[in-house]
Each structure stands twice: as C-alpha cells, then as structure tokens.
Backbone:
C-alpha cells in the first residue's frame, strides 16, 4: 500500500475537494479501518506541515463525560432534564452500586447510569470538547476535508458512497479486510435478489441467477479494490450508480438476463401465439392443431408463469444501471430491445386476460386449485367455527352450502336468582348458507360454462391459436 | 489512534459471542383469510376477566379473608350486581373509567369520514371522570379515595381495562365506597434458561450444565435502540453512521473496540421510520391535503418516497454482517396500526433480508435479521424479554394526570395488573382477540423493554414470590441520540450517547 493512500487522499481531498472518512478510505484501499485512521492522521499532519490549513479534519472522541452540574441526581422528583441524564457524573457512578443495593426503587431509578459518549467534533473545537470529558478512551481522525465544514451532514455522503460503491463484495468477508468485528454465526442466505417466494408458487427462479451470484460476489472485491486507484474513473462510475440498487452485484446480472429472456419467449410462443409473431406461431399452431386438447390445456396452464417472470425482469432492469463500464453499451441495446418487447408482451397479455375473462382464467386455475378449493370454503364459516368437520359434511350445491359444524354458542340462561348468566358452549349445528359470493364464486362456477361456451364464444377476442385448435 | 506512519498491524479483535435467542410467537396473528375482524371486542374483556379472576381472587382472599370492620366480616361477592347495600364485601371486576376527553368513534365519524387518525390528545382526563367496576353482570360505580387520583399518590390510579378486586360497601346512592383494592400482581417467573432447557429435554438432548459451561461474563450484551425515525433526508445520517460504526466496532481505538465486540444482539424497539404509518396522522393528512392532493385513496406513486426505507435497509445491511437484529415495529412504521403489530414485511428490506430466513421456510431467525411483532416476547440468553414499541405506555399515560406518573410506573403496573395493554381495545387499537388474549402476562418477564419514551429510565421491581423484573424505558434515538446497552449476564444497564458538534 506504501504511498498509494497519499496519492488517493491527495486526489480525493485536494484535487477533487471532497470529504473522506476513515471508513470510506478503508473501503477504497481495502485496508483495516484502524490503519485508515492512521493514514488520515498521517496525511493530515504531513500535508498541513507543508501547507498550513490545506486539509481540515474532524475528530471522534470516545469517553466518559464530565458532569456539568454536580447536583445532577438531586434535581428532584420532576421530569429529569435530558442533558443532565446524558452527562453522567462519575462521583455518582461510584455511589451507584450502593444505591442499588438498597433496593430502593426510586433511588435506583434516579441513579445515573454509566454513559459512554461519542462526539464528533471539528478540529477547531477539539480542545474544548476534550475538556468536557472526564475520561477519554480514544480519539481518532474521523474525516478529512479540504476546508472547514459548514455542515457536518456532508459527511454522511461518504457513508452513502460506501453503500453504493463498496458493498458489492460478500458482506460476510468484510471483517477480514476492513476490521469490523467478526460474527461467525451470521449466515446470509444469498438468495437471488428476485426470488422471494411468490404467492402463486408456480414460479421457479432461474437457476443461473443463483449460481452466478456467489461467483460474482467473489470476483467483485478485486475489481472494486482496483477501481479506486483511478479516482476519476471511479467517480464517473459512482455517478452512474444510482442510490439504492446497490446490494445486488450486477456483474452477474448480464448472464441471467438472456436466459430469462429466452425462457419467456419460448413459453410465449408455445402458449399463446400472438399476432406480432404471427407467421411462425400460426404454423406452429397448425402443426399442433391436431394434437390432443390436453396440450392446449397444458400450455394455457403455463401462461401465468411468464406473467410472473415479468416483474422480476423489471426489477433486474432497473438495477441494470450499475453494470460494469465495459459491457454496458452492449447490454443496453439488448436490454432496450428486450424491454420494448416485454412491454408489448405484457400489454398483450393483459389485454388477453381482460378479454378472455372468466372462462379462460377458470381453465387456467382449474388444474392447480383443485385441492385448494376446499380451504377457502371452510374458512367462510363464521368466526366462531372451531372445527368444521373436515369430512364430507359440507356440501356445496347450487350456490348454497349445507353441512354440520361445531360452533361455540353463547347461551344466556336465567339462573335461580333471576339473573342472566352467559355461558359459552360448544354445539353441533347444521347450517346452510350462501356461497361466499364475491371472491370465491368465479372459480367453481364457470366450469360448466367454459365447456359449453368454449366452442364458439370467444374467438373474436381470443388468440387465433385457440380457434385452430378447437376446429 | 492519533499516530501516523509507519502503520502497525491492527490489533486483534475477538469475534462476536453467539446469541442465544429463542423468540416466542405469542403475538403473531393468523395470516390472510384466517384473520377476522368481525368479532366483538367485548369478548376481550370477558376473556381478560375470566383469565385473571382466579389470580385476583386468590390475592384478595389472602389479604382480606379476616378483614373486619366493626363486627362485620368482609364477604366475597361473586358478581358486582350481587352487592347489597350496607354490606361489607369485596368484588372483582374490570375497571372502566368514563372520561370526558376520551375519543369517541361516533363523534369522529360524524365529523368526517374515517380517513385520518383521530386527533391525538395529550390526556383523556377531564374534571368529571367516573370510575366503574364491571363484570359480565353489570357495572358498579366506585367512589372513595382511589377514584380521585389527584388527592392520592400515584400508585392508586387505575385505568380502563385492568382487573381489580375492590373492598368496600355500597352507599345509599348505589355507589360502592372503596376502602382497599387488590390486583393480580406479578405472575410466576420462569427460571433463566427454562424454556431452552425444556426444549432440549423434550428433544431428548442433554441439557447443558449452564453454570459450568456458561461462565459469568460469557453472555454478551444487548444493544437497545428505539425511535431511529429515519426520514431519508440527510438530517439524521451522521448520528446514525456513528451508531453503525459503534456497533460494527469500526470507530474508536482498540480500547473502545474490544468491549464492543461483546454485543450479541441489537433490539430495535419501534419507530425505525418516521411518518410511515399507513394511517396518516391528522397533521400529515392536513399537509397532504394542503399540497393539493385530491386523491385520498389508493396508491399515489408520485407522492411515494422510498428513501427512508432504503436508508433503513442500508443501515440494517451494514450492521447485520456483524450483529443479529431483532426488529419490532412501532407506531410510525409501515405495519398494521392495531396491536399486536405484525412484523415489518421483508419486502421493505431488499438487502438485509438475506440475513433472515425466507418467510416460507421458517419464521424464526436466530442469527440474522428477525422481524418480529410489537409487542414481542422471547428468550434472549435465557432471560424472558418482553418488548414493546411504546404505544401501550403512551396510551396509558393519557389516563393519568400529566407528569404525575412516569413511564416506569406505568410499566410496573402493567405487569402487576398482568396485562401489558390494559387500555386496549378501548383507546388503544387492537386486534379483536377471540379465544385467547395474548396481551395478558402469563409468565413474568425478566426484562421489560418499552421503546420511544421521552427519556431513558430503568428500575428493578420485585414481586411477591421473589420475582425480579428489570424495566427499561428506551428513549427515542432521533431526539436524544442515546442507545441503551444491557449486559445479559449481570443485567446492568449502560447508555451510549452520540453527539455531533457543528
């Protein structure tokens, strides 16, 4: 590392005029934070020896503060002043165990609690701040900047830069490089960013994403640690990176995308030929026309899958911003095309979904939801139903449900004194009620309708393939 | 650390201690369609009285069984309506306090449609409040010293919803003149490690000899913070950065860093985000309306600002590699508003959720991010810990005269009444529990943490059977810049304050 840090700090602070914290320095040069603190100090003293006041520093003081008022605990039973509580006074600290030993609740509550204070100060205020401390355990250089800071909030930019630019490596390896405390028990399940379990359950994340991600995260640190050597380049890169899309390391992103793309197009072509790709699809559907209707059902069944893929791709698209510089242009083109295509696809699919309405959807749902259907029905019993009999006592017929179930009934009985006594009893009750109307009806009901209507009804709006298949 | 080149090799930092962590899922509501809101809230009071009656009766029996006034022996009366005039007796019931300023939902609906939260009041107290005791049979108006808290010391103020035994006589005007009261007091306190050990025993695994294996000082420390109230602007960033660096042991020199490696868990007790509650407060609503937004319902993507939750996610993602986190939602967090608040959804944490178990596989994350309910109950290092985002305390404070009672008093009485949210469902929004009320304290905790209080406070209370409970009121970080540190071996409490000059 020799003098790399001087070069880096000179570029960053003197040339670019940007503040830098020890933490950012450690990330940029991949050194231990404690070393980074010393580097900052070293640079600060040497630089200021050469040209006074060329570099400004802020310091972080850790220690125990001296109490300003000695009568801290004695300010009476009212609401304690925040400031007084904060500055715990060592004389009281020493007497605290005694008070606690008395078991006097009030006293224990009033007794000041040992307080560690961590203060961030500018270099001009360092001495006055130090004077407030009873005991200082450490002082470190927190940041360097070209001139006195008007507003400390500027320093938060540095930490944001860390999260945007330097968090792509495996966080569980940070401790080795940067000197965070190591926690051997934490395990991150590095899921692909998009593969949160979905409600449909049909979606299976593309395996490539999973496999490339760890790989990418391994290669990343090297690239990252190299980058800062050329700060201008790094800067432009940082500018490219939009805040918030950070955690996902995207050097691995380019691979999964084409895969996902091909899968969607494949699915699309054999599920619902749409007019844009008419030539090949129509042929295909001709070829398939003779095939069993089952395949048509199966292909329909798969339609939701691409729909599920869509948001995922949308997400990865957004994050495409932080691609590495080199492949970016190429990917952009490809992406753009893909995006346009996808948008069309989505629109069409939406359109189709709207048009085809219930029958189509019912067909789609039919397969997967057969075992599920029982569940919602059972739930519709009144909230007091504790044990609807799982066996066939619930029958559904003509939009009404009948059966027997166990319910808790609140019984009001007049006792011998003439008072009303409320009792809760479990009784069996037969019931008959309307089917739960709004949500669940569309599923079971349209089934017969779809077979009846399926022949002629929908071809005006449906896809052309269906027409051929049914014919 | 004020040293320049040559740079020595950084000192060795010990690794983190394991966090023995065993959350309970007491406050998790059924998911999806199993969650109903059609039940009546009256059932909660019924349940509460039914579950606590026996304990209160026992307690009162011990205290008053040979209580005599003149020649008259005090007699237990089963129902409040059975009280006969002039007869010395004691009854058990739920307190209900009629308060002049208590929010009335009918008023609110009459005034405007239910869009914004009702106006928050500093207190519900007015001059003509009346205290009553009710059970399933009826209500009894209470008079006497206890009903007038202004003439009394603080420990005799009661709130709606607590279950009480009252000793006294009925006056000519039908009011019950109370001489003394009793409440359930602290329930049984489990032994430390009880749940972990019994789980091991159930699994037929050898139970470790804690005393020898876990030597003193072996348990780590728990950092507790509440009210981060991240706004996503730059205002709150630097103190938050200092806090991150504190937790990850990056800031300071080796003498500071080494003790900090002992943190084995961070507990965030509510209000991590500011102004993110799904129901706008009256002020936010007025501001939104002023801004010319006509759309009252539905999602308005133009007004949505993701930066607070991104910032919170960044914060968690930075500390999670080094320390596990238990995250409770609070009043201003994007969770449901009624207690018990359900865990913050992992979709809010695209980065930090890698450290949590996917919700489909398990709802327990022992090492990593555990997004839990508010209130929450669980075992940390064998201690039973109950944590709350602070709504229960804040609401209860509105029942008592301002300034007369501190957060710790309220917390203590919640435990003694065995109900951590007695004012729910009356003035505190709450899920209509039907078959069981988890807000009743069944096991006495060792540590009771309430977040988002104005200032730090702690107290140790003791129970009749030798229970010792450490109460901690955690201040808002956004206002006080303070973090509470709890040693999980000695149960000693410390504070850490962050300050930025200039």
Residues:
């Amino acid at each position: 590392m020799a003098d790399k840090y001087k070069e880096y700090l000179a570029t960053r602070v003197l040339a670019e005029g940007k503040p830098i914290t020890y933490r950012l320095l450690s990330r940029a040069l991949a050194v231990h934070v404690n070393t980074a603190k010393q580097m900052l100090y070293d640079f600060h003293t040497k630089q200021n020896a050469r040209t006074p006041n060329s570099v400004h520093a802020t310091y972080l003081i850790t220690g125990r503060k001296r109490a300003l008022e000695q009568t801290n605990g004695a300010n009476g039973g009212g609401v304690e002043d925040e400031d007084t509580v904060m500055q715990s006074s060592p004389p009281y600290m020493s007497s605290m165990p005694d008070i606690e030993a008395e078991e006097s609740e009030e006293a224990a509550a009033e007794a000041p609690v040992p307080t560690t204070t961590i203060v961030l100060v500018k270099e001009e205020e360092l001495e006055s701040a130090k004077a407030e401390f009873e005991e200082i355990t450490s002082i470190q250089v927190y940041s360097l900047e070209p001139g006195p800071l008007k507003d400390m909030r500027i320093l938060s930019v540095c930490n944001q830069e860390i999260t945007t630019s330097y968090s792509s490596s495996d966080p569980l390896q940070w401790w080795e490089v940067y000197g965070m405390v190591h926690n051997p028990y934490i395990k991150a399940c590095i899921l692909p960013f998009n593969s949160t379990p979905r409600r449909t359950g049909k979606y299976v994340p593309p395996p490539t994403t999973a496999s490339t991600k760890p790989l990418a995260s391994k290669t990343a640190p090297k690239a990252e640690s190299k980058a800062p050597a050329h700060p201008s380049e790094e800067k432009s890169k940082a500018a490219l990176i939009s805040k918030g899309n950070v955690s996902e390391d995207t050097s691995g992103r380019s691979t999964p995308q084409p895969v996902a793309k091909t899968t969607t197009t494949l699915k699309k072509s054999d599920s619902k030929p749409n007019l844009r790709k008419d030539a090949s699809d129509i042929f295909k559907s001709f070829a398939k026309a003779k095939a069993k209707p089952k395949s048509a059902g199966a292909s329909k069944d798969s339609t939701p899958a691409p729909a599920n893929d869509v948001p995922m791709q949308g997400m990865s698209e957004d994050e495409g911003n932080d691609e590495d510089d080199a492949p970016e242009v190429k990917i952009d083109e490809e992406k753009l095309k893909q995006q346009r295509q996808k948008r069309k696809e989505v629109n069409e699919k939406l359109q189709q979904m709207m048009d085809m309405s219930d029958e189509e959807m019912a067909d789609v749902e039919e397969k997967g939801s057969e075992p599920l259907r029982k569940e919602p029905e059972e739930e519709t019993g009144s909230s007091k139903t504790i044990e609807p009999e799982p066996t066939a006592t619930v029958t559904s017929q003509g939009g009404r449900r009948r059966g027997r179930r166990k319910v808790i009934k609140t019984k009001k009985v007049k006792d011998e004194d003439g008072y009303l006594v409320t009792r809760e009893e479990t009784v069996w009750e037969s019931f008959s009620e309307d089917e739960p109307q709004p949500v669940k009806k569309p599923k079971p009901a349209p089934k017969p309708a779809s077979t009846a209507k399926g022949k002629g009804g929908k071809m005006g709006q449906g896809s052309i393939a269906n027409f051929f298949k049914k014919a | 650390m004020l040293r320049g080149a040559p740079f020595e090799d950084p000192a060795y930092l010990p690794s983190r201690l394991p966090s023995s962590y065993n959350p309970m899922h007491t406050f998790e509501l059924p998911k999806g369609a199993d969650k109903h809101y059609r039940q009546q809230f009256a059932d909660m009071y019924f349940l509460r009285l039914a579950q606590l009656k026996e304990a209160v009766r026992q307690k009162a029996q011990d205290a008053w069984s040979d209580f005599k006034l003149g020649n008259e022996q005090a007699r237990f009366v089963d129902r409040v309506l059975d009280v006969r005039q002039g007869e010395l007796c004691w009854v058990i019931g739920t307190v209900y306090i009629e308060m002049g300023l208590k929010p009335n939902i009918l008023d609110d609906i009459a005034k405007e449609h239910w869009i914004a939260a009702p106006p928050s009041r500093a207190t519900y107290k007015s001059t003509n409040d009346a205290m009553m005791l009710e059970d399933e049979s009826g209500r009894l108006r209470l008079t006497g010293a206890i009903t007038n808290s202004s003439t009394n010391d603080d420990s005799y103020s009661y709130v709606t919803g607590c279950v009480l035994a009252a000793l006294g006589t009925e006056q000519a005007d039908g009011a019950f003149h109370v001489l003394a009261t009793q409440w359930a007091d602290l329930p049984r306190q489990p032994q430390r490690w009880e749940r972990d050990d019994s789980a091991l025993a159930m699994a037929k695994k050898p139970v470790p000899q804690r005393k020898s294996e876990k030597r003193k000082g072996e348990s780590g420390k728990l950092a507790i913070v509440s009210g981060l109230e991240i706004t996503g602007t730059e205002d709150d960033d630097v103190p938050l950065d200092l806090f991150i660096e504190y937790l990850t042991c990056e800031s300071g020199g080796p003498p500071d860093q080494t003790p900090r490696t002992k943190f084995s868990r961070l507990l965030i007790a509510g209000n991590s985000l500011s102004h993110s509650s799904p129901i706008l407060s009256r002020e936010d609503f007025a501001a939104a309306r002023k801004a010319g937004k006509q759309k009252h319902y539905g999602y308005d993507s133009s007004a949505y600002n993701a930066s607070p939750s991104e910032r919170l996610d960044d914060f968690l993602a930075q500390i999670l590699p080094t320390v596990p986190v238990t995250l409770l939602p609070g009043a201003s967090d994007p969770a449901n508003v009624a207690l018990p608040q359900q865990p913050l959804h992992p979709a809010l944490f695209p980065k930090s959720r890698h450290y949590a178990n996917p919700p489909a596989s398990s709802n327990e994350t022992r090492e990593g991010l555990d997004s839990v309910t508010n209130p929450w109950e669980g075992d940390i290092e064998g201690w039973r810990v109950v944590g709350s985002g602070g709504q229960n305390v804040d609401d209860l404070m509105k029942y008592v005269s301002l300034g007369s009672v501190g957060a710790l008093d309220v917390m203590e009485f919640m435990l003694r009444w065995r109900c951590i949210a007695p004012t729910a469902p009356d003035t505190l929004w709450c899920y209509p529990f039907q078959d069981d009320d988890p807000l009743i304290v069944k096991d006495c905790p060792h540590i009771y943490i309430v977040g988002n209080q104005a200032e730090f406070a702690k107290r140790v209370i003791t129970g009749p059977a030798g229970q010792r409970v450490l109460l901690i009121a955690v201040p808002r970080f956004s206002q006080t810049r303070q973090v509470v540190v709890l040693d999980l071996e000695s149960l000693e409490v410390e504070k850490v304050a962050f300050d930025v000059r200039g």
Chain B has eleven helices and 20 strands. The domain at 42-182 of chain B is CATH 2.40.50.430 (OB fold (Dihydrolipoamide Acetyltransferase, E2P)). The CA atoms of residues 9 and 254 of chain B lie 12 Å apart. The first strand of chain B starts at residue 21 and ends at 23.
